[in-house]
Structures are given as C-alpha cells and as structure tokens.
Amino acid sequence: MQRQFDDLMLGSIELFCLAAELGSFTAAAAAASVTPAAVSRSVSRLEERLGVRLFVRTTRQIRLTEGGRIYFEQSRQALTQLVDAEREVTGKQAAPSGTLRISMPTPYAHYRVLPLLPAFRKQYPQVKVEVHISNRNIDFAEEGYDLAIRGALPVDSNLISRKLEDAELVVVATRAYLKRAGTPKSPQDLEKHDCIQFELPSSGRTIPWLFKDQQRSVELPTGGGYLTAGDVLGGVTLARNGAGLFQTYRFIVEPDLQRGDLVEVLAAYGGNSRPFTLLYPPGRQAMRVRSFVEFLMQQLRR
Q1: Is 97 helix (H, G, I), strand (E, B) or coil?
Q2: Can you say whether residue 242 is alpha, beta or left, with left for phi > 0 and alpha for psi between -120 and 50 degrees?
Q3: How far are the Cα atoms of 74, 178, 200 from residue 136, in angstroms, in the given order?
Q4: What is residue 64's three-state secondary structure?
C-alpha cells in the first residue's frame, strides 16, 4: 500500500477535527497545547491539499462548510478507529470507551432502546451514547454513524444486519370510539370506519394494514379522515383521543391495553408482525460497538 499521509498531514487532520468539535481555533489550540496560528496553518494546509474550503471564518467564529462537514465526519470516524485499534493492540482498552452514534426510528427509540441505555452505561460507563431519532435513511460513511436500527432492510446489501425482533401489530381504539362507530368484526368492516393513516417518509405512500386470513397474511388498504406522516406516534396519540382505529406495535400500546384506555379489535385476524433490524457497516468494529450489539441482542430477546 502506497503511503498517503505524512506525520504533518495526520497532525493537521487532528487539529482540524479538534477545531470543528470545539468551534474555535483558539479553543482547539488550548486543548492541543499549540498556538492558534498553528491550528490555522494546519487547516490551510488541508484546504490546499483538498482544494476545498473547510471553514467559513468570521472575526468571532468559524463554521464548517458543507465540504468541511463531510470531511470532518469521515475524518473523525477514521481517527476514532485508529485510536481504537491502538488501544486494542496495546491492551490499553480494558473496557469499551468513546462515543457511540446510533440512528433509530421514533417508536423503537422511545419504547424499546432508550429505556435500556441507563443499564448499558452502568455496565460501560466510559461509553458516551449519541442517539439520533429519525425515520429517514442515513449514510454511514458520510454521517459518521456506528449503528442504525430500521424497520426494513435497506437496498444497500453491503451492510451487516442482525434482526432484533419481530414486533407484533395490533389494531386499537378507545371504548368511546367503538361505542360511537361500532366494533368491526372482520377486516372488511374497516370500510365503515375512520382508520388513521400513516404515510411512509421514504415513499410517500400510506402503509397498508396487515391481517391474517386462514393463516395467510393479507395487506389491506384502509381509509379515513386522518393522515399522519413523519412520526408514527402521531397516529397512536390520535387513537388514544378517540379519533379512530389505528394499527401499531403492541409494545407501544400494551400499557394502554392493560389499563383499559385502549381496546384491541380484530384479534382473530392478528398475529402479524414487522421486523426491526440492527445495521452496521462491515469490517472491524470498535469494542464499544460490539459491546452494544451484544447488550441489545441479549436484552431484547429475554
């Protein structure tokens, strides 16, 4: 392999990342025990090499350009991997450490993963966890994520996938709504009901509801006076307030069902589920990533 970076250039990348993290050449200089002029020269050296402006500079602050943001995210990830490799080879990393960046969708974050994070950090206190809650697809390389949780496998088959669970679906409504509109006896009865819709952000289409008819899974388009997009919990909130019927994950509404605030309907046609999958890029994973994967798989499969 031909050498691409000398020690001076690697040092420049470190100072650039430090300035980007701290938002100041002066703060980066203080943290690295160098002069602000040395940080400025390092950034200029990188900009000359790349042919790209990395910062917008004013008299009071610095701000990453779009190219600078992309370079920072990937450089930070590469430097972190180098540190992890050195620690593991030299035996200095007796326990996982560093920052773990995870992207996950709203319902799975709030109802499955976030409640588990205090136990994870109690076990691994040197790991800082950054959770980005979003239903959009991400670019691991460009955005610097270690892991992502998604409700469907991505088109990119190069990612490693580990199924976390098959989350059961249920159709729910309030007693007040059912008293007003009647209780459906079969999926065909849904034509007469307000079925709260959820629009997929990736495709713009509404998600069909899933039912089982004689052990065969059936997708059924539904309609009604409510459409939510971006956050599936909006549909749950509408259902909790008597707007209509909604199909959602049992793990979200199980407390509502136990209290009697919501009622499950069409249970005879239930039993369907959707998978949730843990995704990460191939290659050597840092100890903090491996530890979190093992922890999450163990917790969710109890």
Answers
A1: coil
A2: left
A3: 20, 34, 10
A4: strand
Helices (H), 221-276: 233-240, 250-259
- Taking the CA atoms of residue 133, residue 139, residue 143 and residue 146 in that order, the dihedral angle to the nearest 10 degrees is 70
**Measured distance CA(166)–CA(151) in Å, rounded:** 10
Question: Which tens digit of pLDDT belongs to each residue from 151-178?
Answer: 876 665 677 888 899 999 999 999 999 9
- DSSP-assigned letter for residue 195: B
Quickly tell me which residue has 């400025």 as its tokens.
40
Name the domain count of the chain.
3
pTM of the model: 0.68
6 CB contacts (<8 Å, ≥6 apart)?
none
- Domain check: are 186 and 225 in the same one? yes
Q: Which domain holds residue 60?
A: 7-67
- CB burial of 272-292 (b: ≥16 within 10 Å; e: otherwise) equals beeebbbbbbeeebbbbbebb
What mean pLDDT value characterizes the chain?
86
